[in-house]
Write a structure and sequence with these properties.
- The chain has 107 residues and is an all-alpha fold.
Length: 107
């Protein structure tokens, strides 16, 4: 559930910047990946008594599952056309202007 929520939020933000649906979903999948650092945090929280053993084991199983699925998700995302990430044709005016102003700073 958290993974899908993270994918949705990142996709909506990317879509608001004018990226295509494919590029937005691809970015959402990549950005929603869980990190192995979360294993450290949940283990430490369990040691400090902040979470119960049941919650610790649940978080451990969820993290390991998501870590094992991450390469598959990344492989699927690679199929998204690179043009999706560079296109701002349908972007809102403010997004196009922002891109131009940033380009002017570096030129």
């Amino acid at each position: 559930v958290v993974y899908l929520l993270k994918v949705g939020v990142v996709s909506l933000v990317m879509r608001s910047f004018g990226f295509t649906v494919g590029a937005s979903l691809a970015a959402g999948v990549i950005m929603a990946q869980v990190s192995e650092v979360s294993l450290f945090f949940v283990a430490r929280a369990q040691q400090l008594g902040l979470v119960s053993r049941h919650v610790y084991l649940l978080m451990l199983a969820t993290t390991v599952t998501l870590l094992s699925v991450a390469p598959l998700a990344s492989n699927i995302v690679r199929r998204v056309d690179k043009r999706d990430f560079s296109s701002l044709e349908n972007a809102p005016t403010w997004a196009r202007n922002r891109k131009r102003s940033i380009a002017n700073v570096f030129s």
